Inverse folding.
């Protein structure tokens, strides 16, 4: 399974580029990637980003898929599926990914007959950046982009999807959804790193 790490955002709420922001000398995106590398079901990682950042992310040692659509995550997912038949998608700002959870999602996809597998919260909120997509959704994504409807959740609800109920998952897997949007989030991430280091 290919993992696509989305890295096309502009980090407005963070105030500077968050994915290359160094935490203990390491770019934030590398915390995400290193967790993915521990997944048994993932055999290749690509970074999806804008053309003007292609060289920057290639220097990290990973192949880059260029997203020229610049319409948010839905565009990143779409251009990746143009190259690969199926892909696990994650946000590059998710540094606490649980490798066992990634494996669980991929296995669910392999056993399902659906076009995508995505976690679902009890309130109906989906986790589209912690999900597996296949080319079975590519036309729906294309139609959404053409109609300027860029919410991935809306496209998912028009697709043949398998929903994983978050409330039935091990509690420790929930931190996999944590993402860094603000400096306050970054402080929380550093706090959790320290807790893990001393646990």
């Amino acid at each position: 399974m290919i993992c696509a790490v989305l890295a096309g955002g502009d980090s407005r709420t963070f105030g500077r580029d968050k994915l290359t922001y160094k935490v203990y000398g390491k770019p934030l995106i590398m915390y995400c990637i290193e967790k993915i590398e521990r997944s048994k079901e993932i055999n290749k990682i690509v970074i999806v980003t804008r053309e003007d950042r292609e060289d920057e992310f290639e220097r990290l040692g990973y192949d880059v898929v260029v997203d020229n659509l610049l319409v948010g995550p839905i565009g990143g997912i779409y251009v990746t599926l143009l190259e690969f038949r199926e892909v696990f998608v994650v946000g590059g700002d998710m540094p606490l990914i649980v490798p066992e959870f990634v494996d669980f999602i991929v296995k669910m996809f392999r056993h399902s007959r659906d076009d995508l597998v995505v976690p679902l919260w009890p309130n109906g909120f989906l986790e589209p950046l912690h999900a597996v997509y296949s080319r079975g959704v590519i036309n729906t994504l294309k139609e959404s982009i053409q109609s300027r409807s860029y919410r991935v959740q809306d496209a998912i609800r028009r697709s043949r999807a398998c929903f994983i109920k978050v409330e039935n998952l091990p509690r420790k897997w929930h931190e996999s959804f944590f993402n860094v949007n603000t400096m306050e989030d970054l402080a929380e991430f550093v706090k959790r790193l320290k807790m893990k280091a001393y646990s």
Observations:
- Residues 183-198 form the longest helix (16 residues).
- The chain has a mean pLDDT of 92.
